Amino acid sequence: MPASQANQALPERCSWCGTDPLYVHYHDSVWGRPEYEDLALFEKLCLDGQQAGLSWITILRKQESYRAAYDNFNPEKIIQYDDAKVAELLANPGIVRNRLKVQSIIKNAKGFLSLQEEGRGFSDFLWSFVGHAPIQNNWRSFEEVPVTTPESEAMSRALKKAGFNFVGPTIVYAFMQATGMVNDHMIHCPQHAECRSESQDV
Fold first, then answer.
1. pLDDT at 10 over 70
2. Which of 100, 101, 127, 170 has the smallest number of Cβ neighbours within 10 A?
């Protein structure tokens, strides 16, 4: 078989990650893998909110800077931020310097801790919207993938009620895709089967 035909026969990863090594690694190792750890979910939800109006690769490239700027997304530290800290964040070139987005992470930290005070673990709260098990989709083209679903709309409403912001249903669905609450890898992508397998091992 000619090499060109052999290459065509190999499964192809989802096209959205392109060829950027950082994005490819994110696609292959993170996106779609079920995440159940409270603080990891909190961080990802906050970062997805920072993406609003931007591309995800922009935020992904700033992820380590965000972790340094926001005390590794420790909600108990974040709720202590005062005006001086906000000014410091707004002067930090390593993050998106938008006042509403800076303040949104502080609001989200308060929402996270409020849920804890009610005795609701963040992971359990979020995963309840998909029945505590990843939704397995079988898309063959990117055009088939929705931007919102009834589950993301319900989660968005609940998060807003809990005090979170930058959590509209489109952002929330992107979050659900990334954290494995839904498996939206293309059916031909090698990671589709891997994510399905991980969900069965939990």
1. no
2. 100
